[in-house]
Amino acid sequence: MWRHTRLGSEILEQPDALERFLEEERENVDHVARRIRERAPRYVVLAARGSSDNAARYAQYVLGAVNALPAALATPSLFSVYGRPPRLRDALVVAISQSGRSPDIVAVVEEARRQGAVTVAITNDSSSPVASAAENVIELRSGLERSVAATKTYTGSLMATALLSASLAGDEERLHELREIPSAVELALRDTAPITEAAAALARAESLVVLSRGYNHATAFEIALKLKELAYVVAEPYSSADFQHGPVAMVERGFPVLAVIPEGAVAEELVALARNLRARGADIVALTPLKAGEDVAGRFLPLPGNVPEWLSPIVTVVPGQILAVELARVKGIDPERPRGLAKVTVTR
User: Fold this and answer.
1) Is the domain 2-179 a CATH 3.40.50.10490 member?
2) Backbone angle region of 306, left / alpha / beta, with phi > 0 → left and psi within -120 to 50 → alpha
């Protein structure tokens, strides 16, 4: 059973890791938020790679919607390869890196600090180079993550971003909502039978698309990444809006689509798109708490209901993590040893 593997154990640890983060880092994050408010940055630059880059995509939505801060993904090669960094004086520069050891991400933080920008490192290693480079450090407190595939450090990075955003806003309601998320993740882990069945149904798929929108645009990217690195599936992530601007032409009978349909502002549009794609013969698997989402999917992976949309990516990604592990197993692939990958990838 996947539960008895190292990777499976780390997936199951996520509720406890998230709870621990909230308990042990809340005071520090409040302190970091106060320091950021004092400096009044005008925009945010997010530096990350891999799964952390997908956490940065989530941060773009949260910091934009909750804190009215424009947020852009950094282009680390401008710093580390071309030596032509942009001006960052009025920026909040946030590095998200579970290991904190990638030189190009460290280079972004070092240059930002040299220019006088506010710098924050979100990392699972408070002694790492990126933590040393930043003025402010938020530690994920996820515990040692041995598996190559990031799982608990990914959801931890989302939680850290959400807590920082709510603390910056001084929003007590959002802070209360955060405290309910570890329980929601625990609920998402309880019934894995539909995920195992979906993996068996997708066993012959060599490619698929993963669709969502809004806050869960990041979820589409992260689930697609897990399917690529663990099950060797050519999984392409799309915003549902972008998908309709060209890539929808790929869809034909039997084409597999994984749709992440949370409760909230984007649900109606995602349900309508799933219905349209199914009418064209697509094989729809939906991750959703919605009855409407179930009705338009050939298969659905249930999610807990009543999760605020801005926090839903911490929950919606969990069935996707399990699906990638299960699909690897069905295909005879060892998800503990993805080919060509190491736990820490060093890019310059």
Assistant:
1) yes
2) left
Q: Look-up: residue for tokens 């801060």?
A: 69
DSSP H or E run through 343: none
Sequence-ordered list of residues with C-beta below 8 angstroms from that of 308, at least 6 positions apart, any chain:
174, 177, 264
98-116 per-position pLDDT tens digit: 999 999 999 999 999 999 9
Element (H, E) at 284: strand 283-288
Q: How many CA atoms lie within 13 A of 44 on its CB side?
A: 29
- Rounded to two decimals, the pTM is 0.95
Per-domain boundaries in the chain? 2-179, 185-330
98, 49 contact by CB (below 8 A): no
Q: Of the candidates 246, 243, 251, 245, which has an alpha carbon nearest to the alpha carbon of residue 280?
A: 251
Equal fold, 2-179 vs 185-330: yes
CATH says 185-330 is which class? alpha beta
Cβ–Cβ < 8 Å for 290, 274: no
Query: Which residue blocks in 152-216 are alpha helix, DSSP H?
Result: 152-169, 172-179, 181-188, 193-201
- 4 has which bridge partners? none
